[in-house]
Amino acid sequence: MQRIFDSKEDFVDLFESSCQTLIGRTYEDCTDAERFQALASIVAAKSRAIGVKTNELAQQEQKKKVYYFSLEFLIGPLLDNYLINYGVRDLVEEGLAELGLSLDNILAQEQDPGLGNGGLGRLAACFMDSMATEGIMGYGNGMRYRYGLFHQAIVNGCQVEETDNWLERGFPWEVRREQSSVIVTFGGKPVRHEDENGHFWFTTEGGDRVKAVPYDVPVVGYGGETVTKLRLWSAEPAEENFDLDAFNEGDYAKANKFRSDVEAISTILYPNDAGPHGRILRIKQEYLFVSAGLQTILRTYERDYGPDWKHFPDHVALHTNDTHPAMCGPELMRLLVDEKGLEWDEAWDITTRSISFTNHTVMPEALETWPIPMFRSLLPRIYMFIDEINRRYLESLSQDRDNWQELASQTAVLWDGNVRMANLSIICGHSVNGVSAIHTEILKHDVLKGFYALTPEKFNNKTNGVSHRRFLREANPALSKVITNAVGDGWMTNAEELSKLEQYADDPAVLDDIVTAKHEAKKRLAEYVKQVSGVELDPNSVFDVQVKRFHAYKRQLLNVFKILDLYNRMIDDPSFRPMPTSFIFGGKAAQSYTFAKEVIRLINSLADVVNNDSRVNDVLRVAFVPNYGISNAQIIYPAAEISEQISTAGMEGSGTSNMKFMMNGAIMLGTYDGANIEIADLVGFENLKIFGLRVEDIERLKAEGYWAWNEYQADRGRLGRVVDELVDGTLARLNGNFELVHDELMVNNDQWFVLADFKPYVQAWEELRQICANPREWAHMSIINTARSGHFSSDRTIREYAEDIWHV
Ligand SMILES: *Cc1c(COP(=O)(O)O)cnc(C)c1O
């Protein structure tokens, strides 16, 4: 364990002087926000110093480096995490208490950098944590967005997007590395050069030269021994582009136009689920962070190993998270061929041995493509490489295959006037993985079956994981204490040790402790919900939670139907009194995703009806937690008794909130989808509830003909009534009826099988409700879920990547 403070006194001295030198006031006169600055800057400085040592050591040992390219890193607040990882949280808390200060109040001041949309970005952040903890030299490469994902406010039931100005008060963890800036060129004209031996290469004439400036954030592993970094790029105009003539002539707008055009590249994070990205800014972001990252990696490699390029793949692994960094292939080719003078074949061998790729989704509309004319005019030289990669690929394909035309149509990079980024990622790399067992199978046999037929050896599964240090230890101190008291703290670095808890699965004292810890977390969430949404929740009611991005396939709508049905039954039959339950929702919808935004309004309308109806509101409550993000997720997961994971089978890549809830002892109510299946295999079907259509059922229904209308007709009394209530005024108080949602079901024939899964879902929930009515029985299931959750630590996932893909 790397101690960053020798003693409490040592810490207190440092903290006092940090307040003085950084803020210019005594700690007593500082605000909590300033105290946060002072404390974070100490931890960040210590981390950077350890980071330098980590690097020197790795260089001496010639350790292989892993570069993780991701357009999103949803890192969340860092201070608490780093205090825990350095093993000084208690010391700091006590030291501050002696000064009359509260660590919790200071921690609450930290901004939550929203540099990701959801699961994909959070995965990248968990991987950074696990790589550092496992002693892997893992470096993140991403974008420093001026504004993160929008802040979600709820006004009159509707989502309203507000700018997320996360840098307003500065970001104490980052350091700007001006001297490590690199130039990235867009547009221009490729010019061919040839030497006397016929060797040729290209340079680019003209074009827009953009300066990419890196900002480094330290990544501290548990124990504090290894500190690596996350490098985030910001776009700025290269000096020489300032239009001095225009400025001197007084045309300041013209002089500054280039500046604002360039800075736009790193201004905003694109929301996912927003439909086809036709926007040129998005390709610019993708190329900027790929090119800047690779230029820097080659520079570092050359410094460490000289121009010994053929051994590059032995020392460097380049991982591409989804298709956003797909230009890694052609850009590395460009750098090796045009700038380092390598021949095509040699460069291609190096490229394909270095790059690996993770696919995250099976939804065809999410498979990224770009129109060729737009792509070619923005990145002409990269396009030439893609064209040549595609030509050689098709040439290799057409040899001795009778179905080559079919394979070509599935796997070519250039097709129908588009550049297909997933295909580019696969062809340029040596590995493609899915993120859960079922997802990988769907890739192999459906979405990417052409590639699987050609190169089965490239395919492998890496079931996602989450940082149990953040989502259990940090988020849930009460439960963590129960665990550590029972089995020691070895689980912090070896999550499999959580399994030792299982011997207490029938121990009444430990089960009572579990119930007490859950109650504490529920009280905390209830206070938070009251504060942010005004809804009062009873901590003695069952907390049934669904928090995640809003998307039709995640089926928040199915959950709404269950609650509305319950409400109807209570109204019809006053003697029907289910166990008091609080239904808690949270999540953002992409700005342009109208359907998802309507479902948010629907939940808020339902909450308005239910919470204000005295016939039911002693038993039923509905709350929507605005602005779901890492900070409040850490308050939500620990408080859940039921975890809703109800996506349409075959649609969810993996899901990771299912794992976070599991660690925190919530019982899953889930479909046969993503990692839910692996969770069920591990904890046993008697310790959670799985319901509804499976992938093969859905395929059969689609083949035979699924008719939402029949489902509606077959159960007019309950299901049909709920459908009708979308448009009959029942829920219309906040901004009217829900025709769009109704039509998605009844006109568009219920693409996501909400009606088909309604009955088994309600049935499964009824069974779970019975269990929750008996705290000991619930606690028994709960402890087994926690005990078997070690498999879903991202430490395990990272060890698999390290061994099977990166070979470190
Ligand atoms: C874990 C997490 C997600 C992913 O949730 P899923 O339910 O797996 O889609 C999204 N957002 C935040 C803030 C998270 O912490």
The CATH class of the largest domain is Alpha Beta
Low-confidence stretches: none
Nearest-angstrom radius of gyration? 27 Å
Query: How many domains, in number, for the residues?
Result: 2
Write out the distinct hetero groups bound to the structure: pyridoxal-5'-phosphate
Helix content: 40-55%
CATH topology of the largest domain: Rossmann fold
Q: In the CATH classification, which architecture of the largest domain applies?
A: 3-Layer(aba) Sandwich
Mean pLDDT across all residues, rounded?
Answer: 95
Percentage beta strand:
5-15%
Q: Main sheet?
A: 10 strands, mixed
According to DSSP, the number of beta strands is: 23
CATH level 4 superfamily of the largest domain: Glycogen Phosphorylase B
Distance between the termini: 23 Å
Q: What count of helical segments does DSSP give?
A: 33
Protein structure class: alpha/beta
Any chance you could write out the topology, listing elements then pairs?
Elements: H1 8-23, H2 32-60, E1 65-69, H3 79-85, H4 89-98, H5 103-107, H6 119-133, E2 137-143, E3 151-155, E4 158-162, E5 175-176, E6 182-186, E7 189-194, E8 200-205, E9 208-220, E10 227-237, H7 244-248, H8 252-263, H9 280-305, H10 312-315, E11 316-321, H11 328-339, H12 344-354, E12 355-358, E13 369-371, H13 372-378, H14 380-398, H15 404-411, E14 414-415, E15 418-420, H16 421-427, E16 431-434, H17 437-447, H18 449-454, E17 459-461, H19 468-474, H20 477-487, H21 508-533, E18 542-547, H22 556-572, E19 581-586, H23 594-611, E20 620-625, H24 630-636, E21 642-645, H25 657-663, E22 667-671, H26 676-683, E23 689-691, H27 695-704, H28 708-714, H29 716-725, H30 739-746, H31 754-772, H32 775-787, H33 794-806
Parallel strand pairs: 1-2, 1-11, 2-10, 11-12, 12-16, 16-17, 18-19, 18-21, 19-20, 21-22, 22-23
Antiparallel strand pairs: 3-4, 5-9, 6-9, 7-8, 9-10, 13-15, 14-15
Pyridoxal-5'-phosphate binds next to α6, α24 and α25.
